[in-house]
Amino acid sequence: MPVLFLNLGPSAAILNNKKNIILVALIVSVLLMGAKFVAYLITASNFVLTDAAESIVNVVASAFAFYSIYLTSLPRDSNHPYGHGKVEFFSAFIEGALISVAGIGILIKSTYSIFYPNAIHELLTGAIIIGITGVVNGGLGYFMISKGKELRSLTLEADGKHLITDMVTSVGLVIGLTLIHFTGLLWLDSALSIGVGMYIVFNGYQLIRRSVGGLMDEADFEVVNNVIEILDKQRKPEWIDIHNLRAQKYGAELHIDCHLTLPNYFDLIRVHDEVKQVDELINKEARIKTEFFIHTDPCLPYCCHYCSMPDCPIRTEEKRIDIPWTMVNLTRNKKHFEQDV
């Protein structure tokens, strides 16, 4: 007996919160990009130029992130029955790709500059400007990562990590410009740029890997394990077993379908109530909005040896073992057996 519970997508308050955070990030990115280009005009440093060029990526990425949050806010329709949440994975992919391109560009330009250095000046002034932009990016980045985890938004996390990456670049810039000012070693400008460029490419790869995993419905084991732990700790005797559990993430929402074994003498109203309790338990305890599709199965005689149902009128043998609810046991497409202990 399949039973379907539908939750109506992200709340308006959460979506508005996401939009406001991304909008602030976009405005800040535009202002900081202007500051970095001013620093380049003052110093003529290739290192500063690469950081300023990366800021263009920040602006484009934040703009796309804002658009993706808008798409996420759209209601479900016939073409998108699970909503538009997966656009967040696509947004993170674009951002990761842009970060990687920026990092590769820095590596190429820095390598060239080792062999063909150019004159630079007013380095301390440039370092101060870049340092200020780094502090702003770092604070905003950590805030966005925190809010992204709280709101279960990959877009906010990705944009926050991008800003943290930009902060690291700025730190490298300040160190490099200061060292060059006091040592006169022009090659340090390019050498430090190469190190920062490699770090940027690695961060871009991580974002791309995570977004592709989401687009390919790769299991989020951290989230699924959390759901299973909650079910195991608060399981009722009526819930004889859960199996064939599968989960998909659509942005900030989790979609789960599974089979729930219940006593075969329950009427339809009792079955409905038990399924509803599972749905409400996870939505309350798991800290992620979850849509459940639960198929109910009747118990069979071979379930008795692990069933805890008291005063069961059809029991064929006493309970002998406790079978823990683990990732392995709940994801298999069959009822539990004695070897599942």
UniProtKB/TrEMBL annotation:
Pfam families noted in UniProt: Cation_efflux (PF01545), ZT_dimer (PF16916)
Organism, scientific name: Mucilaginibacter myungsuensis
GO cellular component terms given for this protein: plasma membrane
InterPro entries: Cation_efflux, Cation_efflux_CTD, Cation_efflux_CTD_sf, Cation_efflux_TM, Cation_efflux_TMD_sf, CDF_Transporter
Protein name: Cation transporter
Keyword annotations of the record: Membrane, Transmembrane, Transmembrane helix, Transport
Domain Cation efflux protein cytoplasmic: residue ranges: 222-299
Subcellular location: Membrane
Protein topology in the membrane: Multi-pass membrane protein
PANTHER family: MITOCHONDRIAL METAL TRANSPORTER 1-RELATED (PTHR43840)
TM ranges: 21-43, 55-75, 87-108, 120-143, 190-208
Domain Cation efflux protein transmembrane: 22-216
One GO BP: intracellular zinc ion homeostasis
SUPFAM superfamilies hit by this protein: Cation efflux protein cytoplasmic domain-like (SSF160240), Cation efflux protein transmembrane domain-like (SSF161111)
Similarity-based family: Belongs to the cation diffusion facilitator (CDF) transporter (TC 2.A.4) family.
Source superkingdom: Bacteria
Gene3D superfamilies linked to this entry: Cation efflux protein transmembrane domain, Cation efflux protein, cytoplasmic domain
Any one Gene Ontology molecular-function term assigned to this protein's record: zinc efflux antiporter activity
